[in-house]
Amino acid sequence: MATTATETHAAMAPRPFRVARRERETADTWTLELEPVQGDPLQVAPGQFTMLYAFGVGEVPISVSGEPGGPLVHTVRAVGAVTEAICAAGEETILGVRGPMGNAWPLGTGGDVVVVAGGIGLAPLRGVVYDLVRRRDAFGEAALLYGGRTPADLLYRDELERWREPLQVDVTVDAAEPGWEGKVGFVAKLVGSARFDPAAATAFVCGPEIMMRTSAEALLERGVPAERIFVSMERNMQCGVGLCGHCQLGPTLICRDGPVYRWDEVERLMAVREL
Amino acid sequence: MTRVIEPAALETLVEALRERGYRVLGPTLRDGAIVYDELESAAELPAGWTDVQEPGSYRVERREDEARFGYAVGPHSWKGYLLPPRLRLWQARLNGNGLEVAEEPLDETPLAFLGVRSCELHAIGVQDRVFVGGRVQDRDYAARREGVFLVAVNCIEPGGTCFCASMGTGPRAEGGYDLALTEVLDGEHRLLAEAGSERGAELLAELPGRDATDGDLQAASTAVDAAASRMGRQLDATDLHGLLRRNLEHPRWDEVAERCLTCGNCTMACPTCFCTTVEDATDLTGQTAERHRVWDSCYSVEYSHIHGGAIRPSGRARYRQWLTHKFGTWHDQFGTSGCVGCGRCITWCPVGIDVTEELTAIRATDGEANHGDD
Amino acid sequence: METIDALLREVPVFRGLEPAQLELIAGCGSNVHFDQGAVLFREGDAADIFYLVRHGTVALETYVPARGPAMIETLQPGEVVGWSWLFPPYRWHFDARALTDLRATAFDGACLRGKADADPRLGYDLMSRFAQVLIERLQWTRLRLLDLYGHDGD
User: Fold this and answer.
1) A60 with A95: CB under 8 angstroms?
2) Which chain C residues are within 8 Å of B308, Cβ to Cβ?
3) I want to staple B192 with a disulfide (CB 3.0 to 4.6 A). Which of A253, A256, B182, B350 is the partner?
4) CB atoms within 10 A of CB B91
5) Is it the case that residue A101 has pLDDT exceeding 80?
6) pLDDT tens digits along C108-134
7) B95-138 pLDDT, tens per residue?
8) Considering only CB atoms, which chain B residues are within 8 Å of C153?
């Protein structure tokens, strides 16, 4: 019960943020940089999320995708009324923010690191990639394996090129367009040929559940221990602070105990249909 | 120190609470059911009424006596006052320089609950763990809950769907109250009153009555013990957490799904179900917006919706979610069972699904699995 | 320079085969090099060879009229390129093109089929290993068919 008044207060009321920068990533996905209208910037860690409020329309959980220690950045895909409103928010638009909520990807120091991302799942992992690049000498092998739907659906294309120097970057698409000279195939397949020592590696996986499951299986097949594979789970969220019940995944509340879980914590739960 | 008061002294109790500024809430007969509402007088208590409850069935009947608390529990629970079914959380206004968000002012009217059963005390405790026991507290719940004056009533008339004795949550209130009453009907209609707090003792001292004799205590104890042995339902509650965890694919889920209407009545009637959702709206000018929090139910398809679809589209999965949460994963999340054995979910289920029967059926064929059509 | 023997021991498709079998297979292999853009084989041609990718990437393609070459899948180091040499009608179903500078080991399919005919045990092992390759290709393809990153499945 050692909750401070401010924490209780901040839990439910959105705080106004201004869209400082907006950049189109793909046909339906935008990256927004947000700055508080007043007061200190939010301290967020890669893996966490905020509840992002479009005035009068509603609120959605969106992972942070900025640089650790940097401004609040969200990459949002327009898939419903609220995300459409957020994506349409031009510079200077005011959005509400609650959070940050949830836990962070446990990127420590040392060892090899494998980042496996599918689709919009690269956004929650971008902060990990920034951190890896910034502290490159602190790690052994570092691989980013990224699968998209088509070449036009790939996020952060300029950065992907820049990351090729410090990291092994392997990008694949499910379906190629004419002119694509990169890889075509399911992202989990890239695990087989990435360069890392399974016994020394930690893996961070984010994307649709089936993609995370097959990627985790490929990582296990390579010999990465289950307790060093981390995934990020998604469920309906309303309150973001463990009070509304919506984000239950069996024994856990994703907003309170996740969204980042060790593979051995969720493998059994993900195997149960409609849990 | 236990005192004995006459039924008429309940009027003094209500008056004393109202004089102290409490909004007194308690049972009253309305629309053929014993419900909770604001009481201006003890005369509004359902004197001489009882309830007859069976799966999918509830009706009130006259008693042969004038017992004030001679019924079990009705469709309402106290959560309606601590977690209002609909609550505005805040209002926001767009102005040139941003967004002004004004949180809804807290309703700090002190509340007194009169006639809280042991199962309901436990239910309040269960919700306390959810709303004020974690890292983030619910400010509205905390404000309403703080200082609630609790007048408990030990059960002497268990209902046909009650199973608190199986859940270890009743019928005797063991603590967490300001006053506990036991109604004794053995010829001399009287109530034993015991204080559980300092303010309870102060109030008790203002009630006309006498000290309890050994005979009074014995009579009260016998009545409550008898209630424990007359529970309408029984349940083997041994490790339900483990039982449900290993039976997520039990064929019983398919079977119960054929009967369950996924109406969500059980979640509304349940005194511990706490799920809510939010509704956002703007006024017609589009300049002000507000958010309401409303009760939600895991039986709705929308409850689990993420973009693309619902996580639990089938009734089987939604019934399983509710039952496994209530009796199983609640332990993982909040350290207790989510069930207090009040029986409301059984009584108010329109098709009479009985959780004790469902759990017993699963236990009887523990480990039987139906992996569907893969 | 690694020997073909050593390569065979490492690649998933032949992992666990007996040394004598590996030696037989290696006897049908030779190291090859393709420049970026080179065509390894063409759809419809007779299939009498398969490759193990050592370095580089191979694209499997088909030609779609009015659209041009469509890339079906890419294959990377450690993967097999080509299974049509083992199954009638022994003709390529797709084009294979080196997406990058490519080093691979080529295996003579007719040579291997001959050895398999003479040694049914080897034939069974080869058949089951290539069946595994087909199963994996099928599974990865099925996952892509789900269009997981599309609007409805993400």
Assistant:
1) no
2) 151-154
3) B182
4) 15
5) yes
6) 998 999 999 999 999 999 999 999 999
7) 876 789 999 999 989 999 999 999 999 999 999 999 999 989 99
8) 308
For residue B294 the two structure tokens come to: 């409303």
Residue C142 burial by CB count (10 A; 0-12/13-18/19+): exposed, middle or buried? Answer: exposed
Residues B319, B332: Cα–Cα separation, whole Å? 19
**Dihedral over Cα of B16, B21, B25, B29: its sign:** positive
Tokens of B277: 């959702």
Between chains, do C153 and B307 touch, taking CB under 8 Å as contact? Answer: no
In the chain, the amino acid numbered A216 is: A
Distances (CA, A) of B322 to A249, B241, B302, B343: 12, 13, 15, 15
State the ipTM, two decimals.
0.90
Residue B112 corresponds to which amino acid?
A: A
- Token digits of residue B257: 């799904």
Q: Do C8 and C25 meet the contact criterion of CB atoms below 8 Å apart?
A: yes
Please provide the DSSP assignment of B97-108 as one string: TEEEEEEPPP--
**Cβ contact, residue pair A11, B136, below 8 Å:** yes
Report the Cα–Cα distance between both ends of chain C, in Å, rounded.
45
DSSP tally for chain B: helices H, then strands E: 14, 16
Contact residues on chain C for A210, CB-CB shorter than 8 A? 143, 146, 148
Q: Which residue of C has its CA nearest to A207?
A: C154
| pLDDT at B198 > cutoff 50 | yes
Pair of tokens at residue C148: 């997981």
Does C153 reach chain B within 8 Å, measured CB to CB? Answer: yes
* Rounded Cα–Cα distance for residues B299 and B257 (Å): 11
> Is there a contact between C77 and A153 if contact means CB atoms under 8 Å apart?
no
Summarize pLDDT for B261-315 with one digit per residue, the tens.
999 999 999 999 999 999 998 888 888 999 999 999 999 999 999 987 899 999 9
Q: How far is B114 from chain A (nearest CA, A)?
A: 27
> Who contacts B351 (Cβ-Cβ below 8 Å, separation ≥6)?
B56, B259, B260, B261
* Residue C153 Cα, gap to closest chain B Cα (Å): 6
Q: Return the C-alpha torsion angle C57, C58, C63, C67, nearest 10.
A: 0
Q: Does B309 touch chain C (CB under 8 A)?
A: yes
Q: Does B307 touch chain C (CB under 8 A)?
A: yes
Find, among B342, B345, B234, the residue nearest to B298 by Cα.
Answer: B345
Q: Would you place residue A5 in the very low, low, confident or very high pLDDT band (cuts 50, 70, 90)?
A: very low
Which is it for strands A29-36 and A15-26: parallel, antiparallel or unpaired? Answer: antiparallel
Q: Does B306 touch chain C (CB under 8 A)?
A: no
Which residue from C minimizes the CA distance to B308?
A: C152
What is the least distance, in Å, from the CA of A196 to any CA of chain B?
A: 35
The beta-carbon neighbor of B278 closest among A15, A238, A242 is A238
Which structure tokens are listed for A102?
Answer: 């949830």
- The per-residue pLDDT of chain B, averaged, comes to 94
